[in-house]
Structures are given as structure tokens and as C-alpha cells.
Amino acid sequence: MCAGVPDSELMVLERAVTDLHIDPRGTIVDEGEPAQHMFNVTAGTVKVYKLLPDGRRQIIGFLMAGDFIGLAVRQSYAYSAEAVTPVRLCRFPRKKLEELFERYPSMEKRLLGLAANELAVAQDLMLLLGRKTAKERLATFLIMLSDRARRLGMPSNPVSLPMSRTDIADYLGLTTETVSRAFTQLKNLKLIRLDTTSQAQILDVEALRDLTEGGS
Amino acid sequence: MCAGVPDSELMVLERAVTDLHIDPRGTIVDEGEPAQHMFNVTAGTVKVYKLLPDGRRQIIGFLMAGDFIGLAVRQSYAYSAEAVTPVRLCRFPRKKLEELFERYPSMEKRLLGLAANELAVAQDLMLLLGRKTAKERLATFLIMLSDRARRLGMPSNPVSLPMSRTDIADYLGLTTETVSRAFTQLKNLKLIRLDTTSQAQILDVEALRDLTEGGS
DNA sequence: CGTAAGATTGAGTCCCTTCAAAGCAAGTGG
DNA sequence: CCACTTGCTTTGAAGGGACTCAATCTTACG
């Protein structure tokens, strides 16, 4: 039910856990608000982002089944989160969660592992944002989604792109126009084919993966 | 001695801990190598970075006293680390550390907190790399160093810049030339003054902090 | 279908990069 | 003690990749 939390331990939480359904564009958390809950995505796609006062936006990550929102949380949320598709969530009150930690210290070890993963992903994204070209960024993004789908036991090849071009742009540090042009470039190179706007067929995984690291 | 680890717990490790001194440009860990150790910086500045095959580099962070290298580690290091200044380190074998976790589960909570911090810093850097201008990036960098110095109980105003312009560029996702020009811009705006290449006086903290978020 | 929102394409501009040269600071040897 | 060297920083000029602005096209949905 709530991925990553064994049933036996979940029992303790059962009364405190809420099962939420959020529609696309629905807000899950707002940057700056007191962080009272932690969420676990059980279905759908969530975007997590930060804003500058003038509206510039950087999407920090797209979360899918099994991912946590509010893992790295302190007093208040450091980012906002919004549903991209219809989303199902488990919501835990943080206080209850801390009680749970007292009783099952092994949970902290698991959370530490998750945090380590997130950190590694974040560092890869920094390399992308700081040093990759638009084409390389999009190639990396597609490979990333493909790999993640496989890890979740879903088909890895027609890559599903539930988010808009604007969202992709805000994740890759580009504009929608540049993202669109990069799609066209990859199409012209015969590396991908767009079945629909939101579904990309990878035609040459190897070449695409090379592009990811600059293999011209 | 080893910041962040209480003496009582440290006793258990004492035979396994090594006190290291590394000269500037000395390598601490190499990306891809098996992650056998975890390090705690006790003095000096360390840069942590990732490379692309063609040599493009992104510095993930500058670590100072109290910071950990290898916190987010899995099988092998996901990045390289190198001394910027003369550095003092505590080195823990990871195996011993895990034994310690068995005995003192509270240590995991502390590490989780540290990881949460790192994650928040990483997310701020993503916003910087994806969405800020060169001037804003440098302003953010200076404020960041100033705030960190204060947290470490050191003077926060003449900001110490032990790293080269190239290192700053590779951290901010820019070139050395652009970093240099951004310094000149901030000087012309009377927001900072460069006492020496490696020491910047902040003349107007408020204005600099505004620039950080686009308050042109 | 008809409409609106999103995606793509085009043209021109700008900020950062690239390439190149000059300036500066620190260390060495005469 | 100072010319000389060497490496880093700063400045300059030209170029390019991504951005901006704008129009067209496509898709989704009532």
C-alpha cells in the first residue's frame, strides 16, 4: 500500500496515515510552509520545484511511485510540489513518524539510503545544468526516464512523458522552444521518434546514451 | 577532534580512525573507485566534483570543517574530491562505521539530518545553475560563503576565497572569464571590493543579498 | 467540428563563451 | 634586492547557442 514501509511497521501508523488523491495541477506542498507532513507517492507523477521572486522556476525533480516528498525536510518545506498527472499519495504526520523512528530505528537507515540516492541524482542534475548542452540535456532526460521506468517494472522503451514541454524546460534549465528544437534534433538524428507529444520511442539507445556524456 | 562525533562514541572507532593531512591539489577520492572510507573535514577547504569524458567539470560543492565526504555514498564514489588548501581529515572505514551504527542508532539520525542539509544546499544550487544569471550566481556564491563562515564562527565579512577563479567557474557553471567579469560588475556597483584576489570585502550586504534573487 | 491550450518553427537578439592579449602576483635565481 | 619566470586573473573582440518575440501548427477536448 505505502511503498517502502513494511506492513508490520505500518500498523503503528495506520490511524495517522491518510491516503490522498490529487488531480493534475493540484498543489501538494508550498515552499515556505511549515513542514508538518511527509508524503510517499504511490501512483502518478509529481513535480517538485523552487521559484525565484520574479517567477523563474527550477524543477528539482519528477517523483514517481516509491519516491518521498519531504525527505530532506526541516522546519518548513524548501520547495513546492504539484501533481502532474492524477496522483495517489500516502501522507504521514511528521510527529508520528518520529515516534515510529524511536521504535524502529532501522527505518532511519532506510531513509538514509533513500536520501543518499536523492543526493546522487541531484548531483547528476547539477552536472547537467552546469555543463551540458541542450541536446545532451534532453538525451539525459530521456535516458533517465527510460531507466527509471524499467526500475519500476514498466516498459522502458516507449518513454512516457506525462509532463509538459514547459515542465521539461524548467527541469533542464532551458526554455520550451529550446526543448522543442532539441526534440527535433534528436528526431533528425534518428535517435528517437515521437509517437505522440507525450510518448517518445527510443530508436538507438546506445547512441542516445553516448550523447548523454557528450559523445557528439 | 573529529567534528560531529561525540567522544564517547568516537572511542569505539579510535583504532580505525586515521588523521590525514593533504596538500593543496592532493586527491582525496576518485570518482568510480570503491567507496571504502568516509571522511570528515576538520580543517581546510575541499572541492568535490564530477567530470564528463571530454573534461567538462562541475564542482558539486566546497567542503569545510565539519562537512562529510562520502555521506551519500553507495558502492563506489559518485564524485572526486581534491584539497583546495592544506586539509585535515578524519578517515573512517565504512565497515567500522556501520558497526558503530548498530550500537548507536542515534548516529544515523544525525547523519540523516546532515544528508537533509546537503540535499537542501544541492537544491539551491540547482536553482542557481538552471535559472540565475552570472551576476546573480556570483552574488549568491559570496553570500553563501559569508553565511557559512559565520556559522563556523569565523569573520563573515571579508569573505575568504581560497579557490581559484577556475574553481569558482566550475562551481557556478560559468567560465573563468565570465566569473572575472561578474566580479568587476559587482565592484562597479560598489557591492564588493577585492582586497586581494582571494579576499572580498562585502560593502553592501543587503543589496548583494537582493541580487541573489534577481532584485536587479 | 470548433476552440483553446500546448507544441513547433522562424527571425533576430543577447548573454555567455571562445580565442587572444595584456596585467599582476608570487616565487626563483642571479 | 631585483630582473625573470610562471601561472593566474583581468580585459578585449568576435562568435555562437540559447533566449525572446511572434506566427503557425497540432493536439486535446468540449
From TrEMBL, chains A, B:
Domain Cyclic nucleotide-binding: 1-70
Residue ranges constituting the HTH crp-type domain according to the UniProt record: 132-206
Cellular component, GO annotation: cytosol
PROSITE patterns membership: CNMP_BINDING_3, HTH_CRP_1, HTH_CRP_2
SMART domains linked to this entry: cNMP, HTH_CRP
SUPFAM superfamilies cross-referenced by the UniProt entry: cAMP-binding domain-like, Winged helix' DNA-binding domain
GO molecular-function terms, A-Z: DNA binding; DNA-binding transcription factor activity
Keywords: DNA-binding, Transcription, Transcription regulation
InterPro entries recorded: cNMP-bd_dom, cNMP-bd_dom_sf, Env_Response_Regulators, HTH_CRP, RmlC-like_jellyroll, Tscrpt_reg_HTH_Crp-type_CS, WH-like_DNA-bd_sf, WH_DNA-bd_sf
Protein name per Swiss-Prot or TrEMBL: Crp/Fnr family transcriptional regulator
